[in-house]
Amino acid sequence: MSDLHIPDAINALYSHPGPFATIYLDATRATESGAHEVQLRVDALAASLRGAGADEKTVDALVDAVTTADRAPGSHGAVLVAADGEVLLDRALPNPPARALADLSPVPHLLPLLAQSAPRVAHVIVLADRTGADVVTVSADAAASGAVPPPQDVEGSHQRPIHQTGRDVWDERHHQNRVDNTWAGNAQEVASYVERQVKAVSAELVIYGGDPHAVGILKQALPEVLGQGIEIAEVENASRAAGGNEIPRSVHDAVLAHQWRARRGVLEHLQQNLGREKWAVAGVQAVVEALRQAQVDTLVISDDPSSTLRAWVGPAALDIALSREDLVATGVELPQQVRLDAALVRAVAGTNAQLLITPNGHDYLPEGIGALLRY
Question: In whole angstroms, what is the distance from residue 315 CA to residue 318 CA?
Fold first, then answer.
């Protein structure tokens, strides 16, 4: 199953004391006036933060980061988190946020960022030809950040003969058998290398393509060396000649399809177990209580930018309640009120639970939230 844990780089934010200033904005500069429009957007968000009580150094750091960044062309968004005059997180978003947001809170507001993050699917890409392959090994964290590691050039030790002649006479058939053995030997060496890379990053998916002859051999070799539990997907329009840094669209589509199947499996498992309180719960109150007890294995929550639900929190990840009185009763002396979804994400991170964000959770979950339990 896809790794639904919150990436370490985002978890690290919770080690800062806060308060956190979080902004989401449309960072598109597609027209001549684009830079000016971005400036107007960030100025409006900065004014909102100042009105909420943010210190001037923190606001200035956010404004500088937005206006001086050399961001990608085309339509996109940006999320920035700052505290104590320092920008702690600055990420581009594939799409502009559903609504601009400025939030000053003891807990950073990270759900919209996580909703747009790339799949945390550790995978290995194999672009093969008859002499070897370019192999790209992508860890779960690298996949989530959108980074593409450099390819490793895996050359087989069987380099001659490599070309067939096409003549159907005895001596040429003998030559062609040797060529077939060369291709098979190289493909087997590539498969063995891929096996080691799969283990190195705990990959759950291997995607391969390239020369038809090499692909035909890999189709047999990879299942033999990888065994059960690893999905193997063949893709078209994947050529080693293009270079491993030019990952074809078909590879990205294979990763997204794998993630979609895995997430659908989680949702089906949750729906099958609702009503069995030892296995799953749904609704805000039940989920908050399960998180406080560190019982949640996977939180499923609807991405709702318009939500106004709030929670009370203390300094620890599991200091969360729906009322101030309930939190005080647990020993928290100075509860503070924050967005409910921000508090839930922090609790998930603090218990190393998994998080699945779904856009239409209200259609099949009470209040758009549910959880699979650990015990």
Answer: 9
- Phi and psi, residue 295, nearest 5°: -95, -10
Residue 81: exposed, middle, or buried by beta-carbon count in 10 A (0-12, 13-18, 19+)?
buried
- Closest C-alpha to 210, from 160, 251, 252: 251
How many whole angstroms separate alpha carbon 354 and alpha carbon 341? 14
**Average pLDDT of 17-27?**
94
Q: Which amino acid is at 359?
A: P
Q: Cα-Cα-Cα-Cα dihedral of 65, 68, 71, 77, to 10°?
A: 50
Task: Residue 329: count other Cβ atoms within 10 Å of its Cβ.
Answer: 10
Tokens of 297: 């294995």
Contact 278, 287 (CB under 8 A): no
End-to-end Cα spacing for the chain: 19
Q: Tokens 């597609």 map to which residue?
A: 30
Q: What are phi and psi of 115, to 5 degrees?
A: -65, -30
pLDDT for 245 beyond 60 = no
Helix (H) or strand (E) holding 274: none
More confident residue, 244 or 333: 333
Q: Is a pLDDT exceeding 80 seen at residue 70?
A: no
- Does 186 have pLDDT greater than 50? yes
Kindly list the distances between the CA atom of residue 2 and the CA atoms of 260, 263, 357, 361, in Å, as whole numbers in the listed order: 9, 8, 13, 19
Is the separation of the CB atoms in 290 and 373 below 8 Å?
yes
Helix, strand, coil percent values for the chain (each to nearest 5): 40, 25, 35
The 8-class DSSP code of residue 71 comes to: P
Peptide bond into 315 cis (omega under 30): no
